[in-house]
Description:
Elements: H1 8-12, H2 31-40, H3 46-60, E1 78-82, E2 87-88, E3 107-108, E4 111-117, E5 120-124, E6 127-128
Antiparallel strand pairs: 1-4, 2-3, 4-5, 5-6
Amino acid sequence: TDHAPHSPAEKAADYPAFADIPGGMPGLQTLLSVMLKLVDEDLIGLRDIARLCAANPANRFGLGRRKGRLAVGHDADILLIDPTRTFAMRDADQKSKAGYTPFDGWSVSATLRQVFLRGEEITRDGALVNPGQGQVVRWES
Length: 141
């Protein structure tokens, strides 16, 4: 996913050269929902989301001994979804400076309920409940 927090006005402005146009699209907030859409369409499974969005990146960036899977000694970064509640991606819900999503109006069959970072709950039903818990993680050789 690319997180490109450019406002619609910035994207629509005239620029002297193509290379000056702000590239990318906002996608950080909608990554899980888009992946769940792929599950809904039987293109991938739930386990594939864990592999593609957690295990593979953790291994690629040298964090696989602490991040990317549920195991003893790992950080217990966990997302809990409710597969009985649908979720609609909407421009109005976007938190980034961009204020829109190219996936506005898409619905998925599951809702993100809680996020745990190193075993501590940080969000519940889209609201921050324990802010400021992030920390820099470094490549492990």
